[in-house]
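As the work plan foresaw, the team has encoded backbone shapes as discrete tokens. One protein thus recorded appears below exactly as we store it.

:::
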Amino acid sequence: MTLKAGNYLFCHMLYRKILLVDDDEEDQEIFNAALTVASGGANCIGVTNAIEAFDKLARKELEPDVIFLDVNMPLMNGLELLKKIKSTEHLKTIHVIMFSTSSSPTTISAAKELGAVNFITKPNRFDDLVNILKPLISHS
């Protein structure tokens, strides 16, 4: 699979502090391994629960440059979390990139309408993930 960007403009900001919200711990491990290959200096924190992620963000325990956010999660899905982030004054400027197995045009459109800066369909190959992350992550 490839980067699914829909009508998004690619953001040219290089991120260093990354929050990954994904309930699948194996997917988190793969993401972190790809991030290590893609970048020498980025820092990633993983949270497996969207409610916990929002609580930590709201209390300013986490202050990421970007949030990679899975769509399909129990309790609160990624679109619901995105909506809460974008409606919270001190969080709404954080860039959110949806990172999901979904490639549904309806889901991509909903994410865009809610304020996601990009939508990445999780690739099947590790090297593809590394290549997706490289242009987004600070190397210094």
